[in-house]
Structures are given as structure tokens and as C-alpha cells.
Amino acid sequence: MTSPVSRPPATEPESADRIAAFEARIANGESIEPKDWMPEKYRQQLVRMMSQHAHSEVVGMLPEGNWITRAPSLRRKMILLSKVQDEAGHGLYIYCGTETLGVDRHELVEQLLSGKAKYSSIFNYPTITYADVGVIGWLVDGAAIVNQTVLAKASYGPYARAMIRICKEENFHKRQGFELVAHLSQDGTPEQKAMVQDAVDRWWWPSLMMFGPHDKDSPNSDSLLRWRVKRFTNDELRQRFINLTIPQARAVGLTVPDPDLVFNEETKNWETGPIDWDEFWRVVKGEGPCNRERLAARNKAHDEGAWVRAAATAYAEKHAHRKQTEAA
Ligand SMILES: [Fe+2]
Ligand SMILES: [Fe+2]
User: Which residues are in the CB-under-5-Å shell of ion ligand 2?
Assistant: First the structure.
């Protein structure tokens, strides 16, 4: 199936004057729209960031999707189904946004299926127990909200607007997760309490890694900040997430697996011990516990969906033909 490729952004050559005018618009808080002139590097950074984001939404359906058939009640099943379905919508929405930068979605999907594209490493960890569903909603969607709330004020209009809508649904995801975590940890049997604590122990550090490397090791941060594609650094956002999450953990009697965690009275920040960046890079490079499984699942779904794409193309062609005949 072919999709209409949006008109590429204005292609006039770059000059110091043009870049200065572009940066002045951004400094002025204006939003950049698809038909506006933009530096090629801005466009490329957005394509990189938005496509990674879209892939993460789509691959992110897999770990929790694993529990849909085994959710313990109809209510839990409905909540989980609707959450996983939302993630599919987020992926499609952001792929559409990426197309406004002149990229074909199929090119991006191909990059994902071939293993060339990156997506959030957190989805390369397994969901071992049902408590993982709650902890992912609380921590992983919680971390996504911290990231995406600031992206809703990003300089590129289509991305920012997509984030406003997506954040509303992410809030539901986080709440359903925390509700499940609170239920297991407060009203659960001793086994359920242990199960939810074990899930927190496994997901805590990967959640902190979701914000990306430390600022000093993040090569793209400078220009992304200057062009307001990003508005805060990785470390600032990570700190915000930690400060929000530790009191929530304490409220439901859970601990995070960090013996060095302390509250700094002066800065009012919760300070964590060191993050294992070796583990992060191992997973990014494809050696996480589930990297191969995730890609295989996406490829299988893509192959099995071939008939749907063929049917949709045939339907679109039939309608285009009918319109032509009617117009003639
Ligand atoms: Fe999402
Ligand atoms: Fe979500």
C-alpha cells in the first residue's frame, strides 16, 4: 500500500540570514509548521526523534499485550486492552506527524522491521508477572508523561499537538498502573505484595534509563535544546521523574532497589546511586533480554497484515476509479 508523501518542507538553500530568522522565530515562541522553512538538521533531528517515538509506541504494545489473555478479571482485561490499543493509536499518530516532514511512513516501518531503527530500550525487558502491567503503567508511562509533557511545548507544531492529545491518554495509563500497584501492595496477599515489589525491583533502573544518557554523553542535546525540540535536558527530566515517583512508592509501602537513595535537603531532590550505563548500551545495541523476540513479533505481525494492506489498497483504488468515472 502506498501512502501520500507530504510535501517536503521548503527547500531554499540555507544561509546565515535564514537560520538567524528561523532561530528568532523559535526564540519568540512561534511554532514551526510543515510548510515553513527549516534547517535540514532540524528536519533530520525531528524525523529521528519522532520516528523513534512512533516505533516505541508500537513495540511498547508487546510486553503488556502478552498479558491480555491472562488478565485476572474482565475489568482488568478491558483496561489493558484499551491501554494497548491506545499505544497503537499513538504510534500511528506520530508516524503521520513524521510524514509532514517529507518522509514516507513505509520507509520508517522498514527501518524498524530490519532492526536498523531504534526504539525505547525499556521494551526489550520481559513482563514476567501480572504485577509488571501495573508497574509499567506507573513507572514507564509515568516517565513517558514527564518527557512528553514538555514535548507538548516543542517548537514543531504537528509534534507538539500530537503530544497534547497523547498525554491525556498517557495519564490514564499511569493511573491505571498505579491503581493496580496500590491494590496489590495494600490489599494484596503476602505473595501479591512480594510480586509487586519484585516488579518494581526489575523496572526501576530501566525506567530511569528511559530519559537517555547523562547530558554530557548525549550528543544531540545541544542543538535540540536550542531549537526547542527539547526543552529540558535528560538529567533534568530524570530528576523530575524521581522526585515525583519516590513519594508515590512510599505512599503504597514499596521501595526502590537503590541503597544509595537519599533526599538532599538543600536541593530538595532525591538523589540516586549510579545508573548502570553498560547495561543501557548493551540493550540499545540489541543484546537486551527480548530484543530479538520483539523484532520477530513485529515482523510476524507485519507479514500477517499483508492481506489487510492489499485490501485497503484495492478499496482505495476502487474509490478513486469511481470518483474519476463520476467526474467524467
Ligand atoms: Fe503511548
Ligand atoms: Fe502509554
Answer: 141, 170, 173
d(Cα 235, Cα 215) in Å, to the nearest integer?
Answer: 6
What distance in angstroms lies between residue 314's CA and the mean position of ligand 2's atoms?
33
Ligand 2 centroid distance, CA of 75 (Å)? 18
The CA 90 to ligand 1 mean position distance, Å, reads 5
Give the tens place of pLDDT for each residue, 87-134.
999 999 999 999 999 999 999 999 999 999 999 999 999 999 999 999
Contact assessment for residue 113 and residue 100, using Cβ atoms and an 8 Å cutoff:
no
Distance 105 CA to ligand 2 centre (A): 21
Largest Cα–Cα distance in the chain?
Answer: 76
- Which of helix, strand or coil describes residue 130? coil
Q: Which of these, 200, 184, 155, lies nearest to 42 by C-alpha position?
A: 155
pLDDT at 263 over 80: yes
Please tell me the distance from the alpha carbon of residue 9 to that of residue 276, in angstroms, as a whole number.
Answer: 40
Residues 6+ apart with CB under 8 A from 326: none
Å from CA of 2 to ligand 1 middle:
25
Please tell me the pTM assigned to this model.
0.91
Identify the nearest ligand to the CA of 133 by its number.
Answer: 2
pLDDT of the residue at 328: 77
Confidence of residue 1 (pLDDT cuts 50, 70, 90): very low
Distance 91 CA to ligand 2 centre (A): 11
CA 162 to ligand 1 center in whole angstroms: 11
Distance between the two ends of the chain, CA-based, in angstroms?
Answer: 26
- Which ligand places an atom closest to the C-alpha of 59? 1
Residue 6 pLDDT grade (very low, low, confident, very high; cuts 50, 70, 90): very low
Torsion, CA 66, CA 117, CA 284, CA 38, rounded to 10: -120
- For 271, the enclosing helix (H) or strand (E) is strand 269-271
